[in-house]
Design a protein that fits this description.
The chain is an alpha+beta fold. The chain has a single domain (31-139), classed as Nuclear Transport Factor 2, Chain: A. It is built from six helices and four strands, in the order αααααββββα. Strands 1-2-3-4 form a four-stranded antiparallel beta sheet, sandwiched between helices. Strand 1 and strand 2 form a beta hairpin. Helix 4 (54-66) crosses helix 5 (71-78). The longest helix is centred in the first third of the chain and has 24 residues, at 2-25. The relative contact order is 0.14.
């Protein structure tokens, strides 16, 4: 009797750990971007921030400070829900170590933009700092 009483909590803990690990391994840049768009649609600033890299959040903090706004206000303005009514088409996810890219079609459906990602603490995060840097390189060679 004692043995099954001890094994039950251990079994439950093992199942919870397995489920948490599986969710972490199931993460992908595509899944992160889809979750980001859903958070944007729902005006969920916490959800948006959760999908952004540390460097991107630092960039948002600096921008908010310059505008004399809170980070949440700046993010809400920078990622309005109106832009995210339809989930854009995605293709060509490429993962190289802790970095990744995903091509996302623009709202007009004419061009594909490359979005950059980094893996932080086991989760894929959108690296808008890197995305902006690469866009600037293309426009100002």
């Amino acid at each position: 009797m004692k043995r099954s009483t001890i094994n039950k909590p251990l079994g439950v803990a093992a199942l919870l750990l397995l489920a948490a690990t599986a969710c972490s391994f199931g993460s992908s840049p595509t899944a992160t971007f889809k979750a980001f768009v859903e958070a944007q649609k729902n005006k969920d600033v916490v959800g948006i921030k959760k999908r952004l890299s540390r460097k991107t959040l630092t960039m948002a903090e600096n921008s908010a400070l310059a505008q004399k706004k809170t980070v949440d206000e700046a993010i809400a303005e920078d990622f309005p829900a109106a832009q995210a009514q339809k989930t854009p088409e995605m293709r060509n996810e490429k993962i190289t170590g802790d970095s990744a890219t995903l091509e996302v079609q623009d709202a007009a459906g004419k061009e594909w933009q490359t979005i950059y990602f980094v893996k932080e603490d086991g989760d894929w995060k959108i690296a808008l700092d890197k995305t902006i840097e690469e866009l600037l390189k293309k426009t100002n060679p």
